[in-house]
């Protein structure tokens, strides 16, 4: 099935795409960068680096963390992070809706089977 993937390149080193947005969604769902990374089959270090990069990309952080200890640590989306995910998903839907006819045309022009 044909799908459209949205990636926003802000400059050479800063971007937002489906992987980072999914990571944010999972942080929101699990309350943990570690658990979000595991759900995406990535190391805690990789997940933490992506979250840190997102927090550095924007003027406001997308994720806030709580230190460990007896009760354990955790992470949650900030209000900005929640809005960032919602805005990205809305842009995805708008792009898909706008381009649906053209994507269907391309899909019909495909040769049979994978190349």
Regarding quaternary structure, how should these chains be classified? single chain
Query: Helix count, per DSSP?
Result: 4
Please describe the biggest sheet, giving its number of strands, its sense, and whether it closes into a barrel: 2 strands, antiparallel
| Strand order across the largest sheet | 1-2
CATH architecture: Orthogonal Bundle
In CATH, the topology is named Arc Repressor Mutant, subunit A
- CATH C-level label: Mainly Alpha
Q: Structural class per helix/strand content?
A: mainly alpha
Helix content: 55-70%
3D architecture notes:
β3 (63-66) and β4 (74-77) form a beta hairpin. The protein has 115 residues and is mainly alpha-helical. The strands form two sheets. It has a two-stranded antiparallel sheet. The chain starts with 7 loop residues before the first strand and ends in a 7-residue tail after the last helix. It has one domain: Winged helix-like DNA-binding domain superfamily/Winged helix DNA-binding domain (Arc Repressor Mutant, subunit A, Orthogonal Bundle), CATH 1.10.10.10. The chain contains four helices and four strands; from the N terminus they run ββαααββα.
Summarize the model shown:
Helix 1 (18-30) packs across helix 2 and helix 2 (33-39) crosses helix 3.
């Amino acid at each position: 099935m044909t799908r459209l993937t949205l990636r926003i390149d802000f400059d050479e080193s800063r971007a937002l795409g489906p992987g980072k947005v999914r990571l944010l969604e999972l942080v929101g769902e699990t309350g943990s960068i570690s658990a979000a990374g595991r759900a995406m089959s990535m190391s805690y270090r990789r997940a933490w680096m992506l979250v840190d990069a997102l927090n550095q990309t924007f003027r406001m952080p997308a994720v806030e963390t709580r230190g460990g200890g007896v009760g354990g640590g955790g992470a949650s989306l900030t209000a900005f992070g929640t809005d960032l995910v919602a805005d990205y998903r809305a842009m995805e839907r708008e792009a898909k809706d706008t381009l649906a006819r053209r994507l269907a045309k391309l899909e019909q022009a495909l040769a049979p089977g994978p190349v």
